[in-house]
Write a structure and sequence with these properties.
This protein is mainly α. Helices cover about 60% and strands about 5% of the residues. The protein has a domain of about 80 residues. Strands 1-2 form a two-stranded antiparallel ribbon. α1 crosses α3 and α2 runs antiparallel to α3. The radius of gyration is 26 Å and the shape is rod-shaped. The C terminus is likely disordered.
Protein backbone atom coordinates (compact mmCIF):
# COMPACT_ATOMS: atom_id res chain seq x y z
CA UNK A 1 0.00 0.00 0.00
CA UNK A 2 1.56 3.32 -1.04
CA UNK A 3 -0.46 5.51 1.34
CA UNK A 4 -2.71 7.04 -1.30
CA UNK A 5 -4.96 4.03 -1.79
CA UNK A 6 -8.49 4.86 -0.81
CA UNK A 7 -8.12 8.58 -1.55
CA UNK A 8 -10.14 10.14 -4.33
CA UNK A 9 -8.46 12.28 -6.98
CA UNK A 10 -10.06 15.34 -5.38
CA UNK A 11 -8.56 14.50 -2.00
CA UNK A 12 -5.12 14.00 -3.54
CA UNK A 13 -5.44 17.38 -5.29
CA UNK A 14 -6.37 18.99 -1.95
CA UNK A 15 -3.23 17.55 -0.37
CA UNK A 16 -1.06 18.75 -3.23
CA UNK A 17 -2.64 22.21 -3.11
CA UNK A 18 -1.45 22.74 0.47
CA UNK A 19 1.94 23.79 -0.89
CA UNK A 20 0.39 26.50 -3.07
CA UNK A 21 -1.86 28.00 -0.40
CA UNK A 22 0.58 30.57 1.08
CA UNK A 23 1.33 32.07 -2.34
CA UNK A 24 -2.36 32.24 -3.24
CA UNK A 25 -3.14 33.83 0.11
CA UNK A 26 -0.44 36.48 -0.38
CA UNK A 27 -1.79 37.32 -3.84
CA UNK A 28 -5.35 37.58 -2.52
CA UNK A 29 -4.18 39.74 0.40
CA UNK A 30 -2.50 42.16 -2.03
CA UNK A 31 -5.65 42.29 -4.18
CA UNK A 32 -7.79 42.89 -1.09
CA UNK A 33 -5.50 45.74 0.00
CA UNK A 34 -5.91 47.40 -3.43
CA UNK A 35 -9.69 46.95 -3.39
CA UNK A 36 -9.97 48.41 0.11
CA UNK A 37 -7.81 51.39 -0.90
CA UNK A 38 -10.17 52.08 -3.81
CA UNK A 39 -13.22 51.59 -1.62
CA UNK A 40 -11.90 54.03 0.99
CA UNK A 41 -11.06 56.83 -1.44
CA UNK A 42 -13.01 60.00 -0.73
CA UNK A 43 -15.94 60.91 -2.94
CA UNK A 44 -15.51 63.61 -5.55
CA UNK A 45 -15.21 66.97 -3.87
CA UNK A 46 -15.75 70.50 -4.99
CA UNK A 47 -12.99 73.01 -5.38
CA UNK A 48 -12.49 76.56 -4.34
CA UNK A 49 -10.41 79.34 -5.80
CA UNK A 50 -10.40 83.00 -4.93
CA UNK A 51 -13.29 82.65 -2.51
CA UNK A 52 -15.52 80.93 -5.09
CA UNK A 53 -16.62 77.37 -4.40
CA UNK A 54 -17.48 75.05 -7.28
CA UNK A 55 -19.49 71.97 -6.30
CA UNK A 56 -18.53 68.58 -7.73
CA UNK A 57 -20.40 67.57 -10.85
CA UNK A 58 -23.17 65.00 -10.55
CA UNK A 59 -21.32 62.77 -12.99
CA UNK A 60 -18.16 63.04 -10.89
CA UNK A 61 -20.10 62.09 -7.76
CA UNK A 62 -21.80 59.20 -9.56
CA UNK A 63 -18.44 57.98 -10.87
CA UNK A 64 -16.96 58.05 -7.37
CA UNK A 65 -19.91 56.16 -5.90
CA UNK A 66 -19.87 53.52 -8.63
CA UNK A 67 -16.12 53.08 -8.13
CA UNK A 68 -16.55 52.64 -4.39
CA UNK A 69 -19.41 50.17 -4.95
CA UNK A 70 -17.34 48.13 -7.42
CA UNK A 71 -14.34 48.10 -5.08
CA UNK A 72 -16.59 46.93 -2.23
CA UNK A 73 -17.97 44.09 -4.35
CA UNK A 74 -14.43 43.13 -5.37
CA UNK A 75 -13.30 43.17 -1.71
CA UNK A 76 -16.23 40.91 -0.79
CA UNK A 77 -15.35 38.47 -3.59
CA UNK A 78 -11.68 38.38 -2.57
CA UNK A 79 -12.64 37.81 1.07
CA UNK A 80 -14.81 34.89 -0.07
CA UNK A 81 -11.91 33.43 -2.04
CA UNK A 82 -9.66 33.73 1.01
CA UNK A 83 -12.24 31.95 3.15
CA UNK A 84 -12.58 29.19 0.53
CA UNK A 85 -8.81 28.81 0.50
CA UNK A 86 -8.74 28.56 4.29
CA UNK A 87 -11.53 25.95 4.30
CA UNK A 88 -9.68 23.99 1.60
CA UNK A 89 -6.50 24.07 3.67
CA UNK A 90 -8.34 22.90 6.75
CA UNK A 91 -9.99 20.06 4.84
CA UNK A 92 -6.71 18.97 3.23
CA UNK A 93 -4.88 19.07 6.55
CA UNK A 94 -7.57 16.95 8.17
CA UNK A 95 -7.31 14.46 5.29
CA UNK A 96 -3.53 14.42 5.62
CA UNK A 97 -3.78 13.83 9.38
CA UNK A 98 -6.23 10.98 8.80
CA UNK A 99 -3.92 9.45 6.20
CA UNK A 100 -0.92 9.80 8.53
CA UNK A 101 -2.77 8.19 11.42
CA UNK A 102 -3.86 5.27 9.22
CA UNK A 103 -0.27 4.76 8.08
CA UNK A 104 1.00 4.83 11.66
CA UNK A 105 -1.61 2.31 12.75
CA UNK A 106 -0.71 -0.06 9.91
CA UNK A 107 3.08 0.28 10.29
CA UNK A 108 5.37 -1.75 12.52
CA UNK A 109 5.94 -0.18 15.88
CA UNK A 110 3.24 2.42 15.39
CA UNK A 111 1.44 3.52 18.54
CA UNK A 112 -1.98 1.95 19.04
CA UNK A 113 -5.03 4.07 18.28
CA UNK A 114 -5.48 6.74 20.94
CA UNK A 115 -1.93 6.53 22.30
CA UNK A 116 0.75 9.08 21.54
CA UNK A 117 4.49 8.57 21.72
CA UNK A 118 5.77 9.05 25.26
CA UNK A 119 2.90 7.19 26.92
CA UNK A 120 0.29 9.95 26.98
CA UNK A 121 -3.10 8.65 25.95
CA UNK A 122 -5.60 10.69 24.05
CA UNK A 123 -8.98 9.95 22.58
CA UNK A 124 -9.11 11.36 19.06
CA UNK A 125 -12.01 9.12 18.11
CA UNK A 126 -14.49 10.83 20.44
CA UNK A 127 -13.48 14.41 19.67
Amino acid sequence: MDGLDGLTDDQIQQLLALGEAPEKNQLLAAQLKQAMALKNQPLAQGSGYGGVYTAPTPIGMLGSMVGKYGAGKQADAITGQMQDLMHGQTSARAQYFKLLMNQLRQGNGAPPAGQMMGGTTTNFEGQ
